[in-house]
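Weekend entry, working from home. Most of the wet-lab plans are on hold until the incubator is repaired, so I used the time to fold the two sequences that have been sitting in the queue since the last round of cloning. Logging both here for the record. First:
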Amino acid sequence: MSFFKNRTVIGVICIVLSLLICFAVTPLFNQSISQKTEIVRVTKPIKIGEAITKDMVQTVEVGGYNLPEDVVRQMDTVIGKFASADLAPGDYIIASKIADAPAAENAYLYNLTGEKQAISVSVKSFAAGLSGKLISGDIVSIVAPDYKKQGVTVIPPELQYVEVIAVTADTGYDANQQNIKSNSSTEQEDVDEKELPATVTLLVTPEQSKILAELEADGTLHVSLVYRGSKENAAKFTEVQDSVLSQLYPEETESQESEDQSQPETPVEPPVESGAE
């Protein structure tokens, strides 16, 4: 104890410790901070579900200290992947923000094959959109009041069985795929968190999309639920609708071929020689 009571000894110990910190610990700390590494950084805004292309990102050299462990360091890791969150220019890309497939709320847009297309129509009122009960996969009929200004309410034959592929709120997010707060304690809180639909996105042919666009412009459109269930049974309804469309809008080539086949050949009469009796 008398040893530590000596002020000179204590002073020497403090000096040794300070020198150790200055010339040993601090350089090692500075070296770890100044160590550089390459990472992938965003150069253009990327929306959730969007495919990442080469012009959207770049490789930059930054300090390696305190970087997330899952930060992406190679361009090949992100090119061709899909953003699972909105990314802004300057953001680092971490593994949790990219996915091999598009985000669930946009996946249906990447399944289009070119034969059919997606079109959204506005839900003008709570009742017009089935009181917010529509979900992806539903088969619906489109009811058109005062169709083509004829004073009658009809279900156009082109829109008798149409598949719903999304129901979207006015925030731009799919209303039937919104995550309700997991810590909600009552059913009323769950209802408060649910967003009401603003648009319904349908899977249609070009001919159907034209009619829907006209109904959207007129502001007269109601959605009537026909079927909700398995994909196999839903496909039976869309097959019936496709059959009706093929009859209403036959392809020009098929129409021309059928016309050629239906017309009998006219026999050619031999020319009559002049002066013949």
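Second, folded right after the first finished:
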Amino acid sequence: MDTETHRLEELLAQQASQWIETMRAPSAQQRAAFVTWLKDSPRNVRDVLLMLTIDQTLEHIDPKRLHDIRSLLAASDPRIVAFPQVLVRRNADAVPRRRWKAAAIAASLVAASVLGWSLWGHSSSQWKEFETAAGEQRAFELEDGSVIHLNTHSRAAIRFSEHARDVRLLRGEALFRVHHDTSRPFSVYTKDAVIQAVGTQFNVYERQDGTEVAVIEGRVIVKAAPQASAPSFIASDPVVPAHEMSMAHPDAGLIVRSSEEVKVNHQGDVSRQTAVDVTDAVAWRERRLIFREQPLDVIAEQFNRYSRKQIRLQGPDVTTRLYTGVFDADDVESLAQILARDPRLVVESSNEAIIVKAR
């Protein structure tokens, strides 16, 4: 990162930290100004969301403010640089609570994702949950060097122990780049599947009709989920540790290699997908949606994850129509325009929804 870019990152982080403090007790005028600032750039929205995550993290790490924040941040990651103008003292009584938190948040926002995972990863062996809002994407570096890219409207929980690295994809989609560690298997759990990897890169999508797994590099083992991990799926539920899975579910599982994709349905059937291009599965990293002869209900489901303006399909004849195309995930209107050219369809658009029905 060059000097100018780093300085810009610092200024943006400081601006976001000031807004989060202002909005603790805002006036009507400040609320309006805050909304205007958010609308100026998606970057502003991202920075505020990252700041709120750090804000919550600091409450868990040092609620009594006994640590020097600069030392804590520096020890966590060398890429985190504090602002020189921010004064942080060891004496908790000398610095008001809000100023303490604002200083720490601003100093760490430049590398927020790394800080959030590494500090929480060492704090306990309990499940820690993270999620993204509609349209938001986030990347997290774990304490072992693995990286999770969480797609829009997704939720995941992670727990590291001495013998295992367990992740629950509770909702949505995630791309995993796993650091090699044979002593601690890396396992991803969904309602329908368990995916085991050692050192690889793979995408997992928890869909309404099952789980899709696409391997980008290396290989993974995919199994139908054992009954012990199927119910309710909240982070506090018990989960079968990776090193005990052979006893819980004797099926050896299906080996899935690079450039292959499989699907696990609710009945526990594991099947390979044919004629796939796994790069399509991770095009969301560039906020692109790629469809190849996909039914309109699947296309609508994908777009609805990114936009508040929802696509609503009326009638079975509409949902099963097949389309091929490449779209900007944030531009639902482009899909509406294409559908409006189809003489078999009627498209009605409002501020809240796009209604598609047969003519």
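Plan for Monday: verify the second prediction. The two ends are 54 Å apart (CA to CA).
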